[in-house]
Design brief:
single chain, 250 residues, mainly alpha, Fic-like fold, 10 helices, 0% strand
């Protein structure tokens, strides 16, 4: 751990203690934050994958059920799918059972339920490749065993930010699905964070170059410091937002 990472970790721990001391949060404040993050997480995660809906357009689709003139139907369907997958993640976060392999597949099923139903919840049967990347993913025949191992590791791991970030990295490195791997991994990461009592972590569209470059570095070399540091910085920002709401409600 670099000195910067150590300082960041200590700051996050201190802010988490402040948040825990303020619990239970005011119902109205928590509801407003959850609603804001439902839009923000959906907008940001889909935008990283090329969805063209803006933040305000995503809110219109999710909150009013309207379509945006000139935007592809698939972009609208992806927004609705992500909202439903996030609601499922929040439900799983409140459960006491370990996260299972079937839970991960169900998250993916919801991520693609309307936008790509033929692939929803199903492991890939062909080779996968990310354009512009030299990362090689495991062959399809190895996916079931790798996902079984991954699920056992996850079930045995404590719910911590470190586990959440590692789960994200491991899942996208297996890349078990033909599409939707990134969205599913980011939702899984936030599921672990929710269970640990943390706010959601949003990787913004402007973070995309650093996010993808550091993830590829982790996949190619095993060096994950840059990837983890970026995600810890985003978690720190979410804690700041929650604490601002706590202070405003107080």
């Amino acid at each position: 751990m670099t000195r910067d990472r150590q300082a960041l970790g200590e700051a996050i721990a201190a802010k988490k203690r402040r948040l825990d001391e303020a619990r239970p949060l005011a119902v109205k404040s928590l509801a407003a934050l959850d609603a804001w993050y439902d839009v923000e997480l959906t907008y940001a995660s889909n935008a990283i994958e090329g969805n063209t809906l803006t933040r305000s357009e995503t809110a219109i689709v999710l909150e009013k059920g309207l379509t945006v003139r000139g935007k592809p139907l698939r972009d609208h369907l992806e927004a609705i799918d992500h909202r439903d997958a996030l609601a499922f993640v929040r439900t799983l976060a409140a459960a006491s059972e370990p996260i299972r392999e079937t839970d991960i597949r169900d998250i993916h099923r919801l991520v693609l339920a309307r936008s790509a139903p033929a692939e929803a919840g199903r492991y890939a049967t062909t080779d996968r490749q990310v354009l512009g990347s030299t990362v090689r993913f495991p062959p399809p025949a190895e996916i079931p065993a790798l996902m079984g191992d991954f699920a056992r590791w996850l079930a045995a791991s404590a719910a911590t930010p470190e586990t959440a970030i590692e789960a994200h990295a491991r899942l996208v490195t297996i890349h078990p699905f033909a599409d939707g791997n990134g969205r599913t991994a980011r939702l899984l990461m936030n599921l672990v964070l929710f269970r640990a009592g943390y706010p959601p972590l949003v990787i913004r569209p402007e973070d995309r170059p650093d996010y993808l470059d550091s993830l590829e570095q982790r996949q190619l070399t095993g060096a994950g410091v840059a990837f983890a540091t970026l995600l810890f910085e985003r978690l720190d920002a979410s804690l700041d937002r929650y604490l601002e709401a706590v202070d405003a409600a107080g």
